[in-house]
Specification:
- The chain is mostly helical.
- It has two domains: 55 residues, no CATH class; 70 residues, no CATH class.
- The chain contains eight helices and four strands.
- The strands form two sheets. Strands 1-2 form a two-stranded parallel ribbon.
- A hairpin with a 7-residue loop joins β3 and β4.
- It is extended, with a radius of gyration of 19 Å.
């Protein structure tokens, strides 16, 4: 966020709170005067209110309600429970080459995973990242 503000890519940041790395905190302290009019901390009732956010003219993400990622499409997630959100993201946002593997994972996690409302199999989910680090791709072989 601070890098985006410094570069001019982002003109103002509005939040309820934010966390910084040690380097980010040092940069904020060193340039506090420059950031004074660019960072606005608002009460949660304002920062996270779905009716207020569009009026502020900003982009917001808090427990993602709409996604436009991986340049594949858009998924409207408003009001959907976690399993239906996952299906929408797979169907509309995931790269087509990953959709079968993601759907298979979701089906198995929903049927056998520890959290049927928010299905997950953490060991397998994290193995995708490990595979990427070792093989350069997350796609199961």
């Amino acid at each position: 966020m601070l890098r985006l503000l410094r570069s001019g890519t982002m003109t103002v940041a509005s939040a309820t709170a934010f966390s910084l790395s040690d380097d980010g905190l040092a940069g904020l302290r060193a340039n506090i005067a420059a950031h004074r009019d660019k960072i606005i901390l608002r009460p949660q009732e304002i920062s996270n209110h779905p009716e207020v956010i569009p009026r502020l003219g900003c982009l917001a993400m808090n427990g993602m309600i709409e996604a436009d990622i991986t340049e594949q499409g858009i998924a409207d997630l408003r009001g959907l429970p976690p399993r239906r959100r996952a299906r929408q993201i797979i169907d509309h946002c995931a790269h087509p080459g990953y959709r079968p593997a993601l759907q298979d994972y979701l089906d198995r996690a929903t049927a056998t995973g520890p959290g049927r409302h928010t299905p997950h199999m953490l060991g397998e989910a994290l193995s995708w990242h490990v595979r990427y680090l070792k093989e350069g791709t997350m796609r199961p072989g």
